[in-house]
Amino acid sequence: MSYTNSSMGSGSRTDRRAFEFGRTYVVRPKGKHQATIVWLHGLGDNGSSWSQLLESLPLPNIKWICPTAPTRPVALLGGFPCTAWFDMGELSEDCPDDLEGLDSSAAHVANLLSTEPADIKLGIGGFSMGAATALYSATCFAQGNYGNGSPYPVCLRTIIGLSGWLPGARNMRNKIQGSHEAARRAASLPILLCHGLCDEVVPHTHGERSNHALSLAGFQNLAFKYYDGYFIYCIVFNPVK
């Protein structure tokens, strides 16, 4: 496992504010390199903790890139600063999305993937707020651009979201179904959503609604799995369906 130092901003025209991202930890494949997945941690966490977990998985052909989100004030925490991929208030469909923060983090992730070899399959996964950022990236890929209109530069082959939710769900369906190319990309992108039934931080109903919204928007290669317990870490031990 290795890491790189923090960088200022994402290197993309999507930035209007400067976000200083923390260390990026890399878990290199133990076998033939076939896929690279950027894995995004949850609110207040960092890339190191997930890199240690991912390094222990029996997946020798995957390179894992685990960045650390910027430290910023978070409205949900009363303005207390912590690592977060974007700002957020209450977890509600009526709460406005921080599209500027989402665009910046999605662009940072895309930049991390953009230097991978052309024959390597690219994906994004995450937990909680990281899952929300991964799903937002999926919608950017399908639409072909970020929320502010700048082009999305990476061809994604898979998305994984654990205990997350879908930002920007209200307007997504019209944006994707209004474009033949966007609909084609959405239909071809495999997405796996997993959620614990007893999750008290991000209730599983948010996962259900996200799955429904993605399906209505035309994401056809979609799987949603429930798991018993409070923590998504139990998914490898105790699946419900």
Automatic annotation (TrEMBL):
Report which residue ranges the record marks as coiled coil: none
Q: Where is the Phospholipase/carboxylesterase/thioesterase domain?
A: 25-224
- Pfam families linked: Abhydrolase_2 (PF02230)
Gene Ontology MF, one: hydrolase activity
Q: Which residues form the signal peptide?
A: none
Extract the Gene3D superfamilies matched here. alpha/beta hydrolase
Give the protein's recorded name.
Answer: Acyl- thioesterase 2-like
Native source organism of the sequence: Olea europaea subsp. europaea
